[in-house]
Design goal:
This protein is mainly β. The protein contains 3 helices and 17 strands.
């Protein structure tokens, strides 16, 4: 409990790298693993997040991760890793999150340079690379599903980063692991698109209620 109190207050942890993000427990219990040590956050508690750290939401639990305006909303039983930068990566390299399992919604501000990717969500099937958008990814062992409510998402092959497909607002896609050409893009059902759009629009109210200090920008 003492360790959690220190983390929630923004205390220091043993780490060689500065914090790259911050994680907030929305509800239930959220497990944060840093340098092989795990700790539990409960509702409205928060902690700094470093490259290489993992976040797992338990049953009936959710977490929000924020970094430089990028917002990730991890749902029940979801598990992700904040990826470490690649060796010799450029300073403006996109933030990368590895979604190991479960459902997550990503809110990414528009890039100042239209050609630059701002954020990448990686699964065992594809790399979802974006310049600014609102989208949801669901990762399972046999398939990854992507749904875009605003903007567009380029789906890249995990191995050679070849662009497999572009998913635009109002569309969804499905991809299987290892199948570099088997990406299916279809229109989202109207009811589902409305539901996701309403849910994402209401996130700013949720973040304010949690005292996160997160504001929803232009995506």
């Amino acid at each position: 409990m003492l360790a959690i109190a220190v983390l929630a207050a923004g205390g220091c942890r043993k780490s060689e790298t500065p914090a790259a993000a911050r994680v907030f427990a929305v509800q239930g219990t959220v497990t944060l693993t840093h340098l092989g040590q795990s700790m539990t956050l409960t509702e409205k508690q928060s902690a700094p997040l470093h490259a290489g750290d993992s976040v797992a939401a338990g049953a009936a639990s959710e977490a929000v991760i924020e970094s430089a305006g990028h917002v990730t909303y991890l749902r029940e039983n979801g598990h992700l890793v904040l990826a470490a930068p690649a060796p010799r990566a450029r300073e403006d390299a996109p933030m990368r999150v590895e979604l190991l399992r479960g459902l997550a919604t990503f809110l990414v501000p528009r890039a100042q340079k239209p050609a630059d990717y701002r954020f990448e969500a990686v699964t065992n099937s594809v790399v979802a690379a974006v310049r600014g958008t609102r989208f949801t990814v669901e990762a399972a062992e046999d398939r990854t599903r992507i749904a875009v409510t605003s903007g567009s998402v380029d789906l890249l092959a995990v191995t050679d980063r070849k662009v497999l497909a572009t998913v635009k607002d109002g569309q969804e896609a499905s991809a299987a692991p290892g199948a570099s050409s088997a990406v299916t893009v279809t229109p989202m059902a109207a009811d589902e698109l409305k539901r996701q759009s309403r849910e994402q629009a209401g996130m700013s109210i949720l973040f304010e209620a949690l005292g996160t200090g997160i504001t929803i920008g232009v995506y």
